[in-house]
Amino acid sequence: EKSYLYYVLSFAGILFYSLLYKGVGTLYLFSSESMTSLITYAAFIVAVPIFFLALFTREILQLSQYPKLHRILNIYLVIFVLLTVICYLFDLNRLRSLFTIILMAYLAFVTFYAFIKGNHQARFIIIGWISFFSSGLFMWLSSMNIYNIFALYPYYTETALLFEAIIFSLALANKIKQLMK
Fold this sequence. Notes:
- This protein is an all-alpha fold.
- Helices cover 82% and strands 0% of the residues.
- It has helices at residues 2-22, 24-29, 32-39, 42-60, 67-89, 93-116, 122-143, 156-180.
- The mean pLDDT is 88.
């Protein structure tokens, strides 16, 4: 099942990003010189899990049954990769976030569309997306010094990602159950 592979790759990327974002990587995994080198690849560290999350969403919702949405997603994924490379080469970190947000918003739209069309997996994915988006939104707000939820709830990101992982795992289990039937 390709969706499971994409999910594992996405979750591994999210875990890696979280380790760096929360400082655990600096404390236990990487030297300060290594962290400095890793920061130069921030565009990829953010883009890789989102890219695999898009592939996961495409597969779990079987977007090929919605040809226009499927084609738009595939085109944007190619553009997303190109824009990520351009952001890396020209140090356009502010724009990198914009392209990621556009992709995530499109994935949310696609998921809601699939839900309206009666796609059984979409109900799980919507709940997972809400958790994931809230975590990403609060991390972004914190990084822009707009609002820091982590002062009130220091483990919000970890809790949201754990919840998202459980929900996406339920979606995978449900899909495998349906395939077996």
